[in-house]
Amino acid sequence: MSMSSPTCFHRRAIVVLLCMAMACLGVSNDTKIVTVFNNGESVGGIQVPLTFRDVPTGKHLAEYLSTLLDVEGMYTDETKTSSKAVADRVYTSTGKAVHSFDDIVPNDSLYIVPTGLLFVWPFIEFGHRVALQSTQSPTGKPIILESFNDSPRVFLIHDFFTDKEADRLIERISEIDDDANKLKRSTVGHDDKGTQSSVRTSENAFDSTSPEAISLMKRSFDLLNIGDYQESMADGLQLLRYKQKQAYIPHNDWFELNTTPDFNWEPKAGGTNRYTFVILFATVFLYLSNVTRGGQTVFPLANMPPGVTHATPPTDEEMELFEKGSWEYRMVKQCYSKYACYKLGAINDSSCRLASYPRKTASVLFYHQKGTGSALTVDFVNTRDHPVGLFWSDSHMTDLKPGQKINYNSFGKHTWVRTNPAATRAW
């Protein structure tokens, strides 16, 4: 016993010394490892060790991280050839602005936002949830933001508003009586008056004054994490009413950059779009009632996430409501998986158009703009193990190699469809 005790002691001492040596060689206790991403991104991040010396202020941290990551922001020259930017804000994975080292949690993700742009929530992965606090929450519960689709960027919102608020907003539709905001046929166009369109048949009113509307708009700013509510950045609360057989064709909720020659319609170049910046930036969409059939919001260029199914397609009898071949008839076909799924070759996989279905107090957030300030564009990704052809009308534009992605600008009047397993066309 007496001879073995010193041996055990020495072994223990060696273990302790080794642990101390490893601590000396590793990262010090005042260092936090984080992964840094560009605004709104979930890929392309870099790991960075940070100490309190790197974060005298949030702006200093943003400027430092901009030296480590390529940052794209507003155009920096009149020729619009350069958009290399420097970030001036940093946010955590929960959307909290970083002001000091204490705001950073080890192994967290940080997002840097360029000067002049707004924070964009990253997608992360399907089903990812973030709990947010809003002083305007009527339930006292956190608002939950759930990732639903990456491109276009769509989130489901939980516990955003109540049945009581929904009922009150419906009542407001009949109360608003001034000519500019009362319920009337929805219009299209870039001026204040707008024009009626045969392919937008809904009615709408605007409410910017009721306590419920103001609270919801403030709540939306909290949700978007873009600072305090500013009336100049919002388009008011638009109350839409769709009766049976009414709809709005697929469209972008902004105007083309060359809509008029005497106005800057491009936010990335310091301009604005659709009267206010926020309408182009994002939409918070609220469902005020339950609907037995129809009423879904469809993103016709995107696919449903795996495992998410559509409602039962309409029967032939239900389809008799619409004139065969009419735009309404085609729209209904677009809105259900039976008509919107493409069977692709021998593997028989399907891609169904992305849709959000109406349920009272359900809410959806979708972005119209990337974290770089650019308008949304169409990405084509070849997930096959063989090349596929990409066509615009009858023009063969390119071939996509397996795994290759290519990006094209697209507009509301363009419809991209898959014509066969080895080709994608648009017209």
UniProtKB/TrEMBL annotation:
InterPro entries: Doublecortin_dom, Doublecortin_dom_sf, P4HA-like, Pro_4_hyd_alph, VHL_sf. Residues 184-194 have a biased composition (Basic and acidic residues). Keywords: Dioxygenase, Iron, Metal-binding, Oxidoreductase, Signal. The keyword Oxidoreductase applies. Its cofactor is L-ascorbate. One of its GO terms (molecular function) is iron ion binding. GO terms for cellular component: endoplasmic reticulum. Residues 32-113 form the Doublecortin domain. Residues 1-26 form the signal peptide. Residues 195-204 have a biased composition (Polar residues). Residues 184-204 are annotated as: Disordered. GO terms for biological process: intracellular signal transduction. The keyword Signal applies. This is Doublecortin domain-containing protein. It comes from Aphanomyces invadans.
